[in-house]
Amino acid sequence: MLKILVTDPISEQGLQELYSSGEFEIIEKIGISPADLLQTIGDFDALLVRSQTKVTKEVIDAGKRLRVIGRAGVGVDNIDVRAATKAGILVINAPDGNTITTAEFTFSMMLALARHIPQAHASLHEGKWERTRFTGVELRGKTLGIVGFGRIGTEVAKRAQAFGMQVIAYDPFLTSARAEKMGVQVATLEETIQVADFITVHTPLTKETRHLISDREFSVMKRGVKILNCARGGIIDEAALLRALEEGIVAGAALDVYEEEPAIANPLLSYAQVIATPHLGASTVEAQVNVAVDVAGGLVKILRGESYPHTVNLPALTPETRKKVEPFVQLGEILGSMAAQTIRGGVQQVQIRYEGEPAQQPADAMTRSILKGVLSHFYREEVHLISATLIAEEMGVEVIETKQPRHGTYANLIEVRLSGDQGTVAVAGTVVPGHGMRIVQIDQYSVDIAPSEAMVLTWHRDQPGVIGHVGGILGEAGVNIASMQVGRQEAGGQAIMMLGVDREVDEAHLKKIRDTIGMDRVLYVELPTS
Ligand SMILES: NC(=O)c1ccc[n+]([C@@H]2O[C@H](COP(=O)([O-])OP(=O)(O)OC[C@H]3O[C@@H](n4cnc5c(N)ncnc54)[C@H](O)[C@@H]3O)[C@@H](O)[C@H]2O)c1
Ligand SMILES: O=C(O)CC[C@@H](O)C(=O)O
């Protein structure tokens, strides 16, 4: 009989899904210590957790029989998904079940912030009757700035509108049409935070969103702004928030999540204007039932060999297909990543053209890989092959694939063209047998360069001295140039330079390159080459 281990408190209804199937042996070891988990996990086929259990690489390595890990909730930050994927263990979650609960929680925090309810409560418990000290503000007529307009951000907006607030939102995937339908003003991050009386963040925590709200952002906010984070610790830079509170820019902050949890010794907790809860956003009876029922049902399906939509990892390729498409799967992710880092603004459409050899293969794995490369720069969690298509659908990103027999210079070619609110970008590449991958086109420029993990891209006017000057700056930064390619349409016209470099280039030296005469744009990009 297959064995399922449950290590976090999971709602009774969720567990019932498992017990009632009668097909599995279920062992509940709630609050198991990390050492005991390592000892125990080897006997189990499935593990069901919430957010307390840390499913580390060591746990995954010790789980010799493990086939699936179920997370009752959205975030899988407590699971080493990469290690699970590598080990062929499927990770599943339940992203829909706690949306309303978390939106309601955010709104409770906003009301508490506006009316100083936690502070007044504490004061009365101390035997004080302080009526004037806790004069608040109405929400009606105030502007709410929402950063991240996904599932939870959208539900927060609906509630704010019911309270007579104006809503302004920033999300690279929010189209004007959707915003108009919702009665929400769509804006840039800067516009959003400049005009808002209350600001709430609802993005994932990614490389792009870590410290999305920091000193520069606080400096443009209205004096007396109130700010909330019920998403993930680290989206708001906590040190910068401390400074903004000290300077009186921020009049109040409501936090449910922290850069380090448990946040017992967090210095923000000593500020009277900060109201704080211990990561309770999803903690309602209803949400816990929803996520537990969803994920337990998912575990049953996966263990029966059926499909479940909320899989976080593991590409499903037969060995034969994998061998044929693997080089193009790798190339696709690199092209998607390069295009996503090059486009200005968000992405609403991904057009993929397969030419020659890849056009003869099933496109699914290659397309997923391209989407993984693109979406990894925008999505809240790590994007995996198996979840990439679903995430694109959820984000409203249109995906168009075309296939053509070989007709150009290359025996095989993949072109990825992204379109968004601020323009388009096209990147194409090929796999040369025996020589590996080459990037052969960026927008109108023909190039020929092997993608490398770290690259510097410049768009500049073609004139003597530019290449030498940039090389000099990189030399001064101690950055070795491994490869270089210049593309131009005509002498003296616009040109692109692509440099493969041996390590990251710091912001100060990138700025120096940007200040070079004739330079239009400079980007440092990292590509998933390994
Ligand atoms: N406090 C809690 O207990 C709790 C409970 C549930 C979810 N969460 C967290 O809330 C957050 C939102 O969850 P969700 O279900 O709404 O996710 P979602 O994926 O539906 O929405 C996230 C949105 O953020 C947007 N986004 C991504 N990068 C961005 C950027 N750089 N700038 C602006 N927007 C960006 C995405 O386009 C997307 O629309 C997640 O971090 C999730 O882990 C917390
Ligand atoms: O209460 C929990 O399990 C955390 C929930 C939340 O942060 C999530 O990501 O779903």
TrEMBL record:
GO terms for molecular function: NAD binding; phosphoglycerate dehydrogenase activity. SUPFAM superfamilies: ACT-like (SSF55021), Formate/glycerate dehydrogenase catalytic domain-like (SSF52283), NAD(P)-binding Rossmann-fold domains (SSF51735), Serine metabolism enzymes domain (SSF143548). This is D-3-phosphoglycerate dehydrogenase. One of its GO terms (biological process) is L-serine biosynthetic process. Its EC number is 1.1.1.95. Belongs to the D-isomer specific 2-hydroxyacid dehydrogenase family. Pathway: Amino-acid biosynthesis; L-serine biosynthesis; L-serine from 3-phospho-D-glycerate: step 1/3. It comes from Sulfoacidibacillus thermotolerans (Acidibacillus sulfuroxidans). Keywords: Amino-acid biosynthesis, NAD, Oxidoreductase, Serine biosynthesis. It catalyses: (R)-2-hydroxyglutarate + NAD(+) = 2-oxoglutarate + NADH + H(+); (2R)-3-phosphoglycerate + NAD(+) = 3-phosphooxypyruvate + NADH + H(+). The lineage of its organism: Bacteria, Bacillati, Bacillota, Bacilli, Bacillales. Catalyzes the reversible oxidation of 3-phospho-D-glycerate to 3-phosphonooxypyruvate, the first step of the phosphorylated L-serine biosynthesis pathway. Also catalyzes the reversible oxidation of 2-hydroxyglutarate to 2-oxoglutarate. Coiled coil: none annotated. InterPro entries: ACT-like_dom_sf (IPR045865), ACT_dom (IPR002912), ASB_dom_sf (IPR029009), D-isomer_2_OHA_DH_cat_dom (IPR006139), D-isomer_DH_CS1 (IPR029752), D-isomer_DH_NAD-bd (IPR006140), NAD(P)-bd_dom_sf (IPR036291), PGDH (IPR006236). PROSITE patterns: ACT, D_2_HYDROXYACID_DH_1. Residues 455-530 form the ACT domain.
